């Protein structure tokens, strides 16, 4: 490689890193959100953890998430959560129960869509306390501007391909809920009933309507 070519290459890398580091966290988060919202829908595998160090709790689960606009469906080890944007059905297979609630009554509940649309309600900053093996990975900490049932959120993104890697919710009881996004697949032909609940599929389940 010629000396001039080497100089141009490293100059490009240097300028790219300056641009990435100089970018405001809310600007980067908006780009990630805009990319996700450009999809008609998407499916992704999920890895979930719930940690409370004081209570010695470290719970892990895996599952699948489907999102289409305000609609979502989560299938995760023993339970299914379905939302058509207006109503939420939580299906508990172990206890054979279905709980119905209104999406509007869950303003303080973090759904897959709210983490993508309410970032303007938070003060955002990059975390400087964590170093990732992949230098393209950045962690953004979000603190609510107004009272919420949780203390803060954190979002991990890849600034090169504008992908969402994970997000965590820190509540006021010391619990940390983290969702890791794995193998996201956009713009799929999903079945029509993906975001609907059919009680005939659960004939022996007790249904509790909490709306």
CATH top level class name = Mainly Beta
Quickly give the structural class: alpha+beta
Uncertain segments of ≥5 residues (pLDDT<50)? Answer: 1-20
What is the straight-line distance between the termini?
Answer: 68 Å
Average predicted confidence as pLDDT? 81
Sequence of strands across the biggest β-sheet: 7-8-9-10-11-1-2-3-4-5-6-12
- The total tally of domains equals 1
User: Which topology does CATH recognise?
Assistant: outer membrane lipoprotein receptor (LolB), chain A
Shape: globular
For the record, the CATH architecture stands as Clam
Number of E strands: 12
Classified in CATH, the superfamily is Lipoprotein localisation LolA/LolB/LppX
Quaternary state, please? single chain
CA radius of gyration is 20 Å
Largest sheet: 12 strands, mixed
Helix content: 10-25%
């Amino acid at each position: 490689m010629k000396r001039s070519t080497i100089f141009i290459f490293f100059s490009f890398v240097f300028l790219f890193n300056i641009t990435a580091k100089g970018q405001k966290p809310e600007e980067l988060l908006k780009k990630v959100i805009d990319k996700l919202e450009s999809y008609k829908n998407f499916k992704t595998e999920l890895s979930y953890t719930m940690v409370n160090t004081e209570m010695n709790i470290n719970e892990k689960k895996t599952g699948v998430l489907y999102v289409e606009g305000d609609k979502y469906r989560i299938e995760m080890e023993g339970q299914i959560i379905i939302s058509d944007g207006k109503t939420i059905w939580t299906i508990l297979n172990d206890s054979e129960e279905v709980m119905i609630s209104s999406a509007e009554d869950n303003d303080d509940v973090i759904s897959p869509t709210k983490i993508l649309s309410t970032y303007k309600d938070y003060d955002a900053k990059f975390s400087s306390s964590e170093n990732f093996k992949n230098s393209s990975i950045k962690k953004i900490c979000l603190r609510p501007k107004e009272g919420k049932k949780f203390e803060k959120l954190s979002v991990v993104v890849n600034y090169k391909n504008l992908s969402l890697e994970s997000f965590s919710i820190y509540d006021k009881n010391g619990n940390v809920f983290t969702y890791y996004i794995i193998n996201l697949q956009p713009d799929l032909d999903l079945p029509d009933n993906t975001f609907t609940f059919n009680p005939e599929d659960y004939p022996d389940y007790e249904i509790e309507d909490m709306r």
